[in-house]
C-alpha cells in the first residue's frame, strides 16, 4: 500500500487535495452534500492505489537482437515479446527499454487492453558509429490505472548484448613472407609410403569421424585420440595492436587509437582470407579468445573482430612480452604502432627477432592534434629495428598505405634474391 501511495500521479494528489478541501469547507459551511462529494473525491485515488497495489501482474518478456554482431554504422533490430501470464487485467502499460546513449534514444511504447493471455510484440532499431559491447535493457514498465491517478513502476532484470565491431576496408594482396610457418592443413602427408611410426594423433574434437579413433593411443592417454591425416602445417600470423593510452592522441571515434583498431580489423580480415591463422596481441598480451589453438577455422574472423571491438586504452607504460616466450615460431607479425619512445625499442627489436617477417603500420599520432607534426618518425624508428614499416596519418587511406607496404616488401624480396644469386655464382667476370 505504501508503494502504491508513493506512485500517486499529479492528478491523484490533486484529487486528494480537492477531496480534503471539500470536506473541510463542508464542515465549516454546514453543507452535508458537499461532504459526500469530498469523501468521494478523496476516496477515489485511495481505493485505486489499494487495488493497484494488491494486484499481481505476471508479465513475461523475451528480448532478441538481430543480428547480435554488427559493424559500426550498421543497424540492428531489437524485438520485444510481452506476454501477460497473470489473470488480472491491467490498465495502460508504459514501456521504456534502457539503451546506451550511443545506440540512440530510449524507445518508449504505450500498450492498452491487457487481459489474460494477452500477447504483444514490438520492435525498434538501434545503430552505433562507435565500436564496443553494449547491454540493451533492462526493461522498465510503468502501470497506470484507467483514471491516471496512480502509476507503479516495475523492471525486468535481463539484458541482451550487442557487439559492434570496427569498420573494415578491403585490402589488396601483397607479398607478406613467413607464409608456411606454424600448424594447420596446408600440406598433406602421404601415409601410404610411411611406416606405423609416422602415425600422428590428436585429441578428439566434436564432429570427428569415430572410425578415425586410434584406440591404442586413447588407452595410453586416457582420452579419445584420432588419427591425423595431414601434416600440421598452416600459415600463422600475429597481429599486434599498441593500445597504450599514452601513445595515442585525439578523443572518441576521431582518435588515433580508433584508426589503429580499424586498421587492425581490416588486416585481420585480409590475413584470414589469405589462409592465415591469426592471433591478436595488445599491450596487455595475447587475447586468449583469438589464440591459435582456440581457432576452429582460419576463415572465422568473428573472434578477432569481437576482440577488437572491446579494445580499450591501456593505462600502462610498458608492453607485455609474455607471448614471446615461444621460441622460433617464425611466421608473420604485423604491428600497428602508436608513438614509440626509446625504452620501447628493445621490445620492438625482440618482437622482430621472434618472427620470420615483420611488417608494421606506424601511426603519425601527433598529426591527430597538430597539422605541423613530423611525418614518418615512428616508421623510421621501426625501420632501424629491421621492420618493414610505413606511416599512416589521419587523412591517409589504409588501402594505399597497405599497397605501399607491399611495394617495400617486394623490393626487399628482390634485394635478398639478388644477394643470394651473387653468393651462389660469385662476382661477374670471375671464376666461381
Please, could you describe this protein's structure?
The chain has 9 helices and 18 strands. The strands form 5 sheets. A 6-stranded mixed beta sheet has the order 15-14-13-16-17-18, with helices on both faces. Strands 5-4-8-9 form a 4-stranded antiparallel beta sheet, with no helix packed on it. The protein starts with a helix and ends in a 7-residue tail after the last helix. It has 4 domains: 53 residues; 107 residues, Sandwich (Immunoglobulin-like), CATH 2.60.40.10; 37 residues, no CATH class; 188 residues, 3-Layer(aba) Sandwich (Rossmann fold). With 432 residues, it is of the alpha/beta class. The C terminus is likely disordered. The radius of gyration is 33 Å and the shape is elongated.
Key attributes of the depicted protein:
Immunoglobulin-like; 23% strand; single chain; 432 residues; six-stranded mixed beta sheet; 4 domains; four-stranded antiparallel beta sheet
Amino acid at each position: 500500500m505504501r508503494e502504491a501511495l508513493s506512485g500517486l500521479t499529479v492528478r491523484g494528489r490533486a484529487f486528494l487535495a480537492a477531496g480534503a478541501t471539500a470536506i473541510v469547507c463542508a464542515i465549516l459551511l454546514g453543507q452535508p452534500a458537499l461532504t459526500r462529494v469530498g469523501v468521494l473525491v478523496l476516496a477515489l485515488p485511495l481505493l485505486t492505489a489499494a487495488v493497484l497495489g494488491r494486484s499481481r501482474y505476471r508479465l513475461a518478456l523475451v528480448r532478441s537482437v538481430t543480428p547480435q554482431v554488427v559493424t559500426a554504422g550498421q543497424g540492428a533490430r531489437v524485438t520485444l515479446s510481452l506476454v501477460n501470464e497473470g489473470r488480472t487485467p491491467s490498465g495502460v502499460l508504459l514501456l521504456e527499454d534502457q539503451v546506451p546513449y550511443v545506440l540512440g534514444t530510449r524507445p518508449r511504447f504505450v500498450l492498452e487492453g491487457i487481459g489474460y493471455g494477452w500477447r504483444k510484440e514490438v520492435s525498434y532499431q538501434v545503430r552505433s558509429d562507435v565500436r564496443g559491447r553494449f547491454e540493451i535493457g533492462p526493461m522498465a514498465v510503468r502501470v497506470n490505472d484507467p483514471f491516471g491517478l496512480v502509476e507503479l513502476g516495475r523492471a525486468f532484470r535481463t539484458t541482451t548484448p550487442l557487439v559492434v565491431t570496427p569498420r573494415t576496408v578491403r585490402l589488396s594482396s601483397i607479398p607478406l613472407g613467413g607464409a608456411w610457418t606454424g600448424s594447420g592443413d596446408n600440406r598433406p602427408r602421404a601415409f601410404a609410403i610411411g611406416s606405423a611410426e609416422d602415425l600422428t594423433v590428436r585429441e578428439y574434437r566434436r564432429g570427428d569421424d569415430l572410425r578415425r579413433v586410434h584406440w591404442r593411443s586413447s588407452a595410453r592417454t586416457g582420452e579419445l585420440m584420432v588419427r591425423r591425416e595431414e601434416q600440421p602445417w598452416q600459415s600463422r600470423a600475429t597481429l599486434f595492436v599498441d593500445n597504450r593510452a599514452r601513445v595515442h592522441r585525439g578523443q572518441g571515434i576521431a582518435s588515433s587509437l580508433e584508426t589503429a583498431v580499424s586498421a587492425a580489423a581490416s588486416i585481420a580480415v585480409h590475413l584470414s582470407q589469405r589462409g592465415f591463422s591469426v592471433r591478436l596481441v595488445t599491450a596487455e598480451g595475447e587475447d586468449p579468445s583469438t589464440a591459435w589453438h582456440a581457432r576452429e577455422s582460419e576463415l572465422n574472423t568473428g573472434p578477432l573482430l569481437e576482440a577488437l571491438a572491446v579494445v580499450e586504452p591501456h593505462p600502462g607504460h610498458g608492453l607485455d612480452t609474455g607471448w614471446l616466450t615461444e621460441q622460433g615460431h617464425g611466421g608473420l607479425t604485423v604491428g600497428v604502432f602508436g608513438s614509440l619512445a626509446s625504452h620501447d625499442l628493445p621490445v620492438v627489436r625482440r618482437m622482430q627477432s621472434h618472427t620470420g617477417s615483420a611488417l608494421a603500420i606506424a601511426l603519425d599520432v601527433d598529426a591527430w592534434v597538430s597539422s605541423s607534426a613530423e611525418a614518418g618518425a615512428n616508421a623510421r624508428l621501426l625501420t632501424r629495428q629491421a621492420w618493414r614499416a610505413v606511416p599512416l596519418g589521419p587523412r591517409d587511406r589504409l588501402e594505399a598505405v597497405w599497397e605501399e607496404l607491399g611495394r617495400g616488401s617486394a623490393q626487399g624480396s628482390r634485394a635478398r634474391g639478388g644477394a643470394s644469386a651473387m653468393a651462389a655464382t660469385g662476382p661477374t667476370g670471375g671464376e666461381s
